[in-house]
């Protein structure tokens, strides 16, 4: 609020100084109009956020991307477990890590732990995940 008041006072002060310095005539009317318009825009800034349009500064973002990444990761892991159980009829545990990069959420890693030590099954799951578009895939059998 303090910043807003200082900005408004500065805009009004600048408007007064400019209108006093500009000589009479057509130029004075134009400049006075522009300065009044600037003052009005500064005064209504809190209502419209007119100077924040197109701001791409993520430091003031109210979104907790880490939390959303975790939720997406958990959900994706559960869905992948169900999919592999249906496709390969095997019990497994999946851990998919989702990251926020380039303005979108993408799978960064996929880890699958199967309950049985079957090399053909491990290779088949690995190839299946590649076809689905996963990257940084790790598939291994659970050690007992």
Features:
single chain; 144 residues
Write down how many β-strands occur, each being a DSSP E stretch of 2 or more residues: 3
Helix and strand run: HHHEEHE
Give the end-to-end Cα distance, rounded to a whole number of Å: 63 Å
How would a textbook summarize the main sheet?
Answer: 3 strands, mixed
Multimerization state: single chain
Tally of helical runs: 4
Shape: rod-shaped
Low-confidence stretches: none
Query: What percent of residues adopt helix (DSSP H or I)?
Result: 55-70%
Rg measurement, Å: 30 Å
Structural class: alpha+beta
Overall mean pLDDT stands at 84
Strand content bin: 15-25%
* Strands side by side in the biggest sheet: 1-2-3
Write structural notes for this entry.
By secondary structure, the chain is α+β, with helices and mostly antiparallel strands. Helices cover 56% and strands 18% of the residues. It has a 3-stranded mixed beta sheet. β2, α4 and β3 form a beta-alpha-beta unit. α1 (2-21) packs antiparallel against α2 (26-48). The longest helix is centred in the middle third of the chain and has 24 residues, at 65-88. The radius of gyration is 30 Å and the shape is rod-shaped. It starts with a helix and ends with a strand.
